[in-house]
Design goal:
The chain has helices at 18-23, 27-53, 58-81. By secondary structure, it is an all-alpha fold. It starts with 17 loop residues before the first helix and ends with a helix. Component of the swi5-sfr1 complex, a complex required for double-strand break repair via homologous recombination.
């Protein structure tokens, strides 16, 4: 006998309709979600191409992020001292 209970079982969630929404997904909803995701992807690819055209490189971005992390760590230590 399986003691597993559905997450939508006896528990009264403060978020109404969450479980019903997942089970009620239709092919149209999925198709719309795919369309939106493809549009977002196209936008991101466009932004990447614009940045590359401006001369930005991935290595430069990684270096910048590393320097920001270092700055934040130093700033946190300074705040702890104060």
């Amino acid at each position: 006998m399986n003691n597993f209970k559905s997450p939508c079982g006896n528990f009264k969630s403060p978020v109404q309709g969450k479980c019903e929404k997942k089970s009620m997904s239709s092919a149209e909803d999925i198709t719309e979600n795919i369309k939106e995701t493809k549009e977002k992807l196209a936008g991101v690819i466009h932004q990447i191409n614009l940045l590359k055209a401006e001369g930005c490189s991935e290595e430069e971005l990684k270096l910048h992020i590393d320097k920001l992390h270092e700055y934040n760590e130093i700033k946190d230590v300074g705040q702890m001292i104060l």
